[in-house]
Amino acid sequence: MKKYIITSALVLFAAAAQAQDSYSNYTMTSTADVIGTARYVGMGGAMGALGADISALSNNPASLGLFRKNDFSITMGGVIQDAKPYETDNRGHYSFDQVGFVAAFPNSDRSAFFNFGVNFQKKADFGHSLFVQNNTLNGLSQAAQLRGLYDVGMSYSGNENFRYSLPYQACNAYIYDVEVAGQPGYHNIKSKGYDFNRHSFGNNYALDFSFAGSIKDRVYLGMTLGIDFLRYENSQRYVEYRDGALGEVEDYDILSNKYVSGKGLNLKFGILVRPIEENPLRVGFAFETPTWYTLTQKDSHYSIASKWNYDGFDEANNIHKYSYNDEKGKYTTYDSPDDNFLDFNVHSPWKIRFSAGSTVGTYLAWDVEYEYALYNNATMGYPRNYHNNSASLSMTKDPGMTALTKASINGIHNIRAGVEFKPLPEFAVRLGYNFWSKAMKDGARLDQTVDSKSLDFVLGTDYMNLGATNMLTFGLGYRYKAFYADFAYKYRHQKGDFYAFDDTFQRSGDAGYEQFLSAGQSLRSEEVDLSRHTITFTLGFKF
């Protein structure tokens, strides 16, 4: 399918907000990955019970109590995606993953320790290039959803911001609001297919301040105060190819850009216990509060390039007149309104963790862990107040988006396991496995008809139902006196079902939409490969 390049000049980025919803909130706050020191990655993230690694604090802060020396480490690496990137996008990118230190303070006989740690570590890497193409729409169209959303949005009271939305502006761009041959109302045009591409980038970093102590080397208690720094950006393009009563209509084109940034705050508490004095087995429990995010979406923009042009009202015939730009590459461009941004809050879910680990002599260590995260109970809302232009952590909940989250997102199970083998005292080999259950419920969809302030700023209609995540890891480690160097390789395998729009309106039986249907078909999802390869290097020093 041919691709058109818009020749109309785009204005500078305006500050209109894209809708924040359950899907995008999950994307930004999910931690379904293993990122940290190379030892931690090589063990599949299973080090909460073994401890004595600064990245293990992200699982159980009590693991800090197992340090017996001061420690400094820094970690970096690279990420390469499996799927072919879009056009000139890069398949891989550099990643700075971690830097931190631990200070260990023993008592006089070293029977107990009080340790302090500071770690700056990546929680999520948003870098990805996506290209999806569907040539078998069989008449279904994004335009029909935009028309339906326009009808719904106009029916809600108090939607003073709806005029900024994509459905409203799509009407002004005559994607669906065209009268033909004197026929009043909408003229819907069947679609043949679409092209969609998106380039995402940004990170979520956590700055953790941790405290832990040990009691007679049997009980370890820890606490972490975490501050998140989130930045998410994407640019995307949707092109639809249509034909219908007027003959072949080449396409319309929607480009958009999105920027979200903000901070979050959370607490972690953990305990580790050696239940048998002469046995190195350790069992642990930890829980993590929600991360209370205050976020702002700004510097976002969309532009609609339409083949249709409005030529004014014909008073003699009492009809609006439209013309079709049949010249190749000739579009009329409609840009999003200016001076709009959205301050919003997201409270990520509570998480609980259980772990067990032990050592065999000085040559073998193992760890297994389980985590449950209540993502179906994550909430979104809007700041209750401001102080010095900073939004509050407290919020007024958005009931529509809360209901959508419960309807579409699962509670998520995470199982991780790791083993470390030392054939020589200074050399280690590591293997790990990490599993996250699928995030979205069966049949979940992005319902943009809910009564939500956020959806007054609709910019896109796409969504993706993510499948389960499986990670296999391998690592090597070398120690020489106080110095250590570690390497890890991680393969993260995940797929998703991508939908460029929701076809609910077109399957509703409503005469206003049913002309889009072809043989009663529904929109087919496109399978997307989100798998990636990561290499990680850590340099450290114990003293």
Provide an overview of this structure.
Helices cover 8% and strands 50% of the residues. It is mainly beta. The protein has a 14-stranded antiparallel beta barrel. Helix 3 packs across helix 4. It is elongated, with a radius of gyration of 27 Å.
List strands and helices in order, with pairings.
Elements: H1 22-29, H2 38-42, E1 71-81, E2 92-106, E3 113-125, E4 128-134, H3 142-155, H4 166-172, E5 191-215, E6 219-244, E7 247-273, E8 282-288, E9 292-297, E10 301-306, E11 308-314, E12 319-324, E13 332-335, E14 342-347, E15 351-360, E16 364-373, E17 379-383, E18 386-387, E19 390-391, E20 395-397, H5 399-408, E21 412-424, E22 427-436, E23 463-480, E24 483-499, E25 526-529, E26 532-542
Antiparallel strand pairs: 1-2, 1-26, 2-3, 3-5, 4-5, 5-6, 6-7, 7-8, 7-9, 7-10, 8-15, 9-14, 10-13, 11-12, 14-17, 15-16, 16-21, 17-20, 18-19, 21-22, 22-23, 23-24, 24-25, 24-26
Helix pairs in contact: 3-4
Instruction: Extract low-pLDDT stretches.
Output: 1-19
Strand order, largest beta sheet = 1-2-3-5-6-7-8-15-16-21-22-23-24-26
Biggest sheet architecture: 14 strands, antiparallel, barrel
Please tell me what the overall shape is: elongated
In helices, the fraction of residues equals: under 10%
Number of helices: 5
What would you report as the Rg, rounded to the nearest angstrom?
27 Å
Secondary structure tally: strands: 26
Span between termini = 62 Å
Oligomer: single chain
Which structural class do you get from the secondary structure elements? mainly beta
Mean pLDDT: 85
- Beta-strand level of the residues, as a percent range? over 45%
